[in-house]
Amino acid sequence: MQNPVNLQAINTEGDDVTPFFHTNTQVLYFSNNSRQGLGNLDIFKSIKSGNSWSEPEHMGYPLNSSYDDFHYTLSPGSAEALMASNRIGSTYLEKEKEACCHDIYVVETKFIELLALTFDDFTKAPLNGATVSLFKMSGERKSKMETKTNPDGNDFNFTPERKEIYIITAERDGYYPYRDTLYLDRPPLDDITSITKEIYMIPAEIDLEVLTFDDYTKAGLTGVNVELVEIDNKSKSIIADETNEVGNDFKFKIRGGRSYIIKGKKQGYEMDLDTIDQLPSDLRNLKSLRRELYLRPLIFAEFLPLTLYFDNDEPDQNSWATATKKSYLETWEGYYPRKQIFLDEFGKGMTQEMKFLANQRIEDFFEREVKSGGEAMKVFSDLLYEFLRQGNKLEIVLRGYTSPRAASDYNQNLSKRRISSVRNHFEQYKEGIFKPFMQEGKLVILEKPYGETKAKGDVSDKLNDVRNSIFGVPASLERRVEIIDVRQADDL
Q1: Omega of the bond leading into 126 within 30 degrees of 0 (cis)
Q2: Residue 257's pLDDT band (cuts 50, 70, 90)
Q3: Could you tell me where the beta strands, DSSP code E, fall in 266-367?
Q4: Residue 369 main-chain phi, psi, to 5 deg
Q5: CB 3.0-4.6 Å disulfide test: which of 172, 227, 394, 436 passes with 130?
């Protein structure tokens, strides 16, 4: 044992007595009657750091009084302390000697500093954005004490009372609710002044990666629309609908206790889908999933967009009706033979050289656009029929246009009649081979009549300019119906 060494950083010319060193906190408590205080012996503290001591700090009122306060001794957890004092209230025998004698006093900490920290139970990383609540139990009831949300951090500070029982809960989107009990009324929590409670929250969601491929080349397929359908207790809802124009990867969050359908769609491809059977409610053993969709090119995709041209004011000239009984091929069979009439009417009054150039353009339009459109429609229809026979459900999107020669409202109706003639084509083609599919909802036709609203600004709309507004190629190019998309439909 070494000889005692004077602790000069603490001692004074007065009395420095009843030292107590609290190992857990590295704090020395002692009493002194010469430092500035409330009078007589007061309790001070000094914190040890290595071989150094902090400047002694007066412990303040009501721990100290104007009488003698000394022999301050803390419990191991710092929640309780014992001390001696002859302050008013101490036991005495004679009134005139009221402050003569020292009694033992107990000092208890009323509140505890509680630091709650939230973490992801999978990654063990700090989890920001949770809401933590603390409930004080009163008998069999619980009364809400405090609720805190920290959008930018994972720390939550509370000050519960000692020797009470609390329920602590945590909630966050994408995670299962957390609940635990804090027994501050029994060891080891009944003798502490601060607690750090780590809360590990189990994700209620996991990552789903979806990759899309061309089924023929097996290469990654961009521009696919992926739809994620969640099934919960037989109800279906679309929870994600995304298109990736630059890549073939998709990231989604899916929840435990649900089933899912994944659908991949792209113009010119058959839809592909995959399913995820009902996930377990506890996802701790299933951190992520991956699914691959392989989209098969549609056999008739090469025809799209398929443009079908019409003669001026056809079908049903001078009609304000929005529907017609004619089918597209009927109008086509009457339109293509009029090629010579268009050549003659447009070329009237032209020089031979100008007429040659104009006739060449009209000839090209009738052969490359009008004739080929009708022929392509027949092949397209046959391929479409074979595809429907395989059990597929399809949607066809039609857009109808007109040249600007007539009034706008008339042209709007005319574009509807042209769409109607294409619909009639599918109802009447080859003695109605498509009709059962249309009646059963297996072939759905979606219509978008634009009238003249999309016509180019340089197309003639003058009634007295018959050459250009009827027989000119720019005007003829506006009189059309486009099949812009054929896509697999579903029943959701």
Answers
A1: no
A2: confident
A3: 272-276, 288-295, 306-309
A4: -105, -55
A5: 172
Instruction: Report yes or no: 184 and 114 within 8 Å, Cβ to Cβ.
Output: no
Torsion of CA 241, 244, 247, 250, to 10 degrees: -20
Distance between CA atoms of 322 and 421, rounded to whole angstroms? 10
Confidence of residue 415 (pLDDT cuts 50, 70, 90): very high
Please give the pLDDT value at position 57: 94
Instruction: Map residue 69 onto helix, strand or coil.
Output: strand
| DSSP helix/strand/coil, 481 | strand
Burial of 359 by CB count in 10 Å (0-12 exposed, 13-18 middle, 19+ buried)?
Answer: middle
Task: Please state the rounded mean pLDDT for residues 445-470.
Answer: 87
Pairing between strand 42-49 and 52-53?
Answer: antiparallel
Distance between CA atoms of 477 and 459, rounded to whole angstroms?
10
pTM of the model: 0.49
What span, in angstroms and rounded, lies between the C-alpha atoms of 183 and 179?
13
Which helix (H) or strand (E) element contains residue 339?
Answer: helix 339-347
First to last CA, the chain: 87
Query: Three-class SS of residue 86?
Result: coil
Quick check: bond before 62 cis, omega within 30?
yes
pLDDT value of residue 188? 85
